[in-house]
Amino acid sequence: MSCYLFGAVWAPVDGWEGEEIEILGQKGEVRLVREGDLGFLFSELGIDGKLKATRKAAKQHSQILTDLLTVQETLAPVPFGTVIESEQEIREMLDRNRDQIENVLDNIDNQVEYGIKVYWDPDEVARRLAEESDEIQELKSKIKRGGVGNTFEATLEVGELIEEKMGDKKEDLKQDVLKSLKDVINDWVVNEPFDERMAANLAFLLDKEDQDELDRTIEDLGKSEPDYLTINYSGPWPPFNFVNLELR
User: Could you tell me if 25 and 102 lie in one domain?
Assistant: First the structure.
C-alpha cells in the first residue's frame, strides 16, 4: 500500500479523519500523520506504477480537498497524484520540510481561493472596438475608396490594430476586476485563458469571513460592465494557485 497525499494542515484536525473517500478507482480512509503541530492528510491506496491522470480522478482529488476545507480552517493542498511509499516517509518528509510547510500554512491561514473568468464574444468585441476607433475607421474607408497602395497589406493592418485593441481591452478588464476587489482580496494571480471566448482568467485569495462581501462585489461588478461580457466565478476552493510545496 502507498500513501496518497492530499495536503498539509495544522494538527490536530477536526473531523474527516477516518472518513471514506474514493479516488483512482479505489476506496480508502482519510488519515492524518502528525509531527508536533504539523500534519499531513493522506489515504492508503494500492498504487502500482505511474498514476494515470484522468479527468475523473483529478476532479475527485479536487472535490476531496474542497470537502476537507469545510472542516479544516487551513489546508495547503498538494497536486493530484502525489504519492509517498509509507507513513514513516511522510513523517520524515514533514521533518525535512517543516519550515517551508509552516510558512505556507501561515501565509494561507483561514483563507480560501475563488476563481473568476470573464467571457466575451470575440467577433462582437472586435466589431465594437473597430467602430469606436477613428484610426481603424479611416483606414477601412481608404481601403474601400482604393486609397491605399496595397489593399491586402492595409487589410492586414486593420486586423492587427483590432487585435492590439482587444489586447488592451483585456488588460483594462483585468484592472477593472482587480480595482473592484482590492478591498476584499489578499492576493491574486493571472492564469492563461484556455478558451478563445475567455477574456480574463483570475484566481483570488481571501479570508473566509469575506466571502459574502465577495458575492456582493462581483454582483456590482457585473452590473457595471458592458452587456457583451459574462462574469463567472467559483469557489471556495483550497488555495491551489497560492501554494507551491516543493517537498523533498
Answer: yes
Instruction: Identify whether residues 181 and 94 lie together within a single domain.
Output: no
pLDDT digits 0-9 by tens, 190-204 = 998 888 889 899 999
Radius of gyration of the chain (CA): 24
**Using an 8 Å Cβ cutoff, are 48 and 67 in contact?**
no
Contact 74, 10 (CB under 8 A): yes
Q: Which residues of 216-238 are buried (b: 16+ CB within 10 A; e: fewer)?
A: ebbeebeeebeeebebebebbbb
Q: Per residue in 85-116, pLDDT tens?
A: 888 999 999 999 999 999 999 999 999 999 99
Would you say 129 and 162 are in contact if contact means Cβ atoms under 8 Å apart? yes
What are 77's three cell numbers? 493542498
Render pLDDT for 24-52 as a digit per residue (tens, 0 to 9): 777 888 888 888 889 899 888 877 656 67
Q: Do 154 and 222 belong together in one domain?
A: yes
- Both 133 and 62 in one domain: the answer is no
pTM of structure: 0.83
Residue 143 placed within a domain: yes
Q: Is 248 inside a domain boundary?
A: no
- The answer to whether the bond into 12 is cis (omega within 30° of 0) is yes
> In terms of Cα–Cα distance, which of 229, 227, 222, 219 is closest to 199?
229
Quote the CA–CA distance of 244 and 227 in Å, as a whole number: 37
